[in-house]
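Good morning C.,

I know you're traveling, so I'll keep this short. The sequence:
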Amino acid sequence: MMLFLAYWALPIRTAAGITSAHYRKAAPDFTLGDSKGASIRLSDYKGKVVLLDFWATWCSDCKTEIPWYIEFENRYKSSGLAVIGVSMDSSWELVKPFLEQQKMNYTVVMSSNEVTKLYGVRLIPMTLLIDRDGRVADYRIGVIDKNAFESEIHILLHESAKNTAK
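The tokens, ready to paste straight into the viewer:
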């Protein structure tokens, strides 16, 4: 786990805060279940920009960000953005009512110990922006700066994917 954290500790960033494309590392793949029992694989989202958010129903900072992610999903889904929330809660019994109450319009999956370790999640919220090639372009621990993150989403949506370009 410490190797993963050290791996991301000193990325070379552009002016917008995004790691330069040359230095981006592949986001670890995972398969997790969503609230309907379907298996969601991160690698199936290649070709899209992914906002990957580790959150929990009891996290007040997470509750601040969720409406922003709902807004981003509404605004940019047709341009190639996919928002995935990874709940750190203990059960769907806690999460499903919260999803309905918040009217969350994006994919939510339940985390596992393996994924938590794989991503080195120690504090939440933890949010990553993954480019169209499946590489981590930015990550933040704590509440994001909504406007700065939205600017980064714009930049990533306008980048073309090397592995998916025709």
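Safe travels,
E.
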